[in-house]
Amino acid sequence: MSGREELEEGKSFTPRFDDNGLIPAICTDASSGEVLMFAWMNREALEITIKTGTACYWSRSRGKLWRKGETSGNTQEIVEIRTDCDQDVVWISVNQTSGACHTGRKSCFYRSVPIGAESIADVELVTEDTERLFNPKDIYGA
After folding, report:
1. Does the CA dihedral 31-35-88-86 come out positive or negative?
2. How far apart, in whole angstroms, are the C-alpha atoms of residue 123 and residue 120?
3. Distance between CA 41 and CA 67 in Å, rounded?
4. Exposure of 58 by Cβ count < 10 A (0-12 exposed, 13-18 middle, 19+ buried)?
5. CA 77 to CA 92: how far, in whole Å?
6. Single pTM value for the model
7. Residue 85 contacts residue 15 (beta carbons within 8 Å)
């Protein structure tokens, strides 16, 4: 097999990290398929996730590993990890403890962007999910 064929059809897991050493990770609820969040992983975070079966990410804003639930207790138990055809993104299916979003909601994608505006400046977001599963101030402080 050629290099491209091996990448797309082979059995070797060879994640393609970007120039910053990161790979996008899309996280969905294992039972509903709902997108819970998007985050980044570096090699160490991906290896920890694979080894432990609980989600670990790379926090770009804090510049360190972020074990999902380390502060909130809202962990993500891995059900399945998939990669796309050219192995430059991973899709993680999880059993989520309580909410995935730091705002207290189940998903980080709780607002929609209406289609048809002339420009981004004209867009007014629509909140779809107002239910909070936990109070962020109780977990993260003020």
Report:
1. positive
2. 5
3. 11
4. buried
5. 10
6. 0.88
7. no
H helix count then E strand count, the chain: 3, 8
Token pair for 26? 């899309």
User: One digit per residue, pLDDT tens: the chain, 142 residues?
Assistant: 678 888 888 889 999 999 999 999 999 999 999 999 999 999 999 999 999 999 999 999 999 999 998 888 899 999 999 999 999 999 999 999 888 988 989 999 999 999 999 999 999 999 998 899 988 888 887 6
Contact between 31 and 22 under an 8 Å Cβ cutoff? The reply is no
Which residues are bridge partners to 27 per DSSP?
37, 92
Instruction: Give kind and range of the element (H or E) at residue 31.
Output: none
Alpha-carbon distance of 133 to 63, in angstroms, equals 28
Beta strands in 6-88 (DSSP E): 23-29, 35-41, 56-59, 64-67, 76-83
Residue 38 to residue 27: CA distance in whole angstroms: 6
89's tokens: 């993104």
How high is the pLDDT of residue 1?
Answer: 66
Distances (CA, A) of 37 to 17, 44, 117, 118: 19, 20, 25, 28
